[in-house]
Amino acid sequence: MNKNKKLVINSDWCKGCGICVEFCPAKVLEIKNDKVLLINPLKCTACGLCELRCPDYAIYLEVMDDGVKIDARK
After folding, report:
1. What is the pLDDT of residues 3-33, one digit of tens each?
2. pLDDT tens digits, one per residue of 23-66
3. What is residue 39's DSSP assignment?
4. CA-to-CA distance for 15 and 62, rounded, in angstroms?
5. DSSP H or E stretch at residue 6
6. Per-residue pLDDT averaged across 68-73, rounded?
7. At 56, phi and psi to the nearest 5?
8. What is the rounded (10 degree) CA torsion for 34, 6, 64, 13?
9. Residue 48, CB half-sphere, CA atoms under 13 Å: how many?
10. What is residue 31's three-state secondary structure?
């Protein structure tokens, strides 16, 4: 994963639709118990397709700059 980006999943918002799983080019996401899970964080390329496609805003990339979180969603 890009060292300046971290994939964050809000399980409370996830409805388990699987759209993010289908669009993930690195195949690092999986649906288990009706929720998305990051199964291989080291292979995640932080491309952002999961965030772009999630209809419930349950998954997003958190951007870090010198150890400080930057909310890229604003």
Report:
1. 688 899 999 999 999 999 999 999 999 999 9
2. 999 999 999 999 999 999 999 999 999 999 999 999 999 987 76
3. S
4. 21
5. strand 5-9
6. 58
7. -110, 5
8. 0
9. 8
10. strand
pLDDT at residue 64 in the model: 77
Tokens of 63: 């951007």
**Token duo for residue 20:** 């993010």
Output the pTM of the full model: 0.80
Alpha-carbon dihedral sign for residues 13, 10, 15, 22: positive
21: alpha, beta or left? (left if phi > 0; alpha if psi -120 to 50): alpha
Q: Are 39 and 29 in contact (CB under 8 A)?
A: yes
- What CA–CA distance (Å, rounded) separates 21 from 54? 10
Structure tokens at 44: 């995640």
Neighbouring residues of 27: CB distance < 8 A, sequence distance ≥ 6: 43
